[in-house]
TrEMBL record:
Gene3D superfamilies: Zinc finger, CCCH-type. This is C3H1-type domain-containing protein. InterPro entries: ZC3H7A/B, Znf_C2H2_sf, Znf_CCCH, Znf_CCCH_sf. A zinc finger (C3H1-type) spans 47-74. Pfam families: zf-CCCH (PF00642). Keywords: Metal-binding, Zinc, Zinc-finger. Signal peptide: none annotated. GO terms for molecular function: miRNA binding; zinc ion binding. It comes from the Eukaryota. Residues 47-74 form the C3H1-type domain. The keyword Cell wall biogenesis/degradation does not apply. GO terms for biological process: miRNA processing.
């Protein structure tokens, strides 16, 4: 019996090979990202806190792009939208058995998935 990953276009001949593939960082990145996604976002990738930056509002944030908080209402709204989209993608990947049901290590995306685990 073989396995096919429609996300990556990869075939696996054994369960062990399949398990190795679906736990790889490259595969997981494809679960959350597509080429279409990159062109539709206007703001930076969510940094961990889904709230507005108080320092940005007052005098400007010295952390700039490294700040964990959103620097505008539109950035915050986009972050929430991205989180919702990533949650949908993860649910579909789990349904299609492209992510192990007990896998909760998603690298840079892990903080976005807290409410699912």
């Amino acid at each position: 019996m073989g396995y096919h990953c429609w996300l990556c276009g990869k075939n696996s001949n054994s369960e062990k090979q399949w398990a190795k593939h679906i736990t790889s960082e490259k595969h997981k990145d494809k679960v959350f990202n597509s080429e279409d996604d990159q062109s539709c976002w206007q703001h930076r990738f969510p940094m961990g806190e889904f709230r507005l930056c108080e320092r940005q509002r007052k005098n400007g944030c010295p952390d700039g792009d490294k700040c964990r908080f959103a620097h505008s209402q539109s950035e915050l709204e986009e972050w929430v939208e991205r989180k919702e989209l990533m949650n949908l993608k993860l649910a579909k990947a789990r349904k299609d058995m492209l992510i192990s049901p007990d896998d909760d290590d998603f690298g840079k995306y892990s903080f976005l998935m807290k409410d699912l685990n």
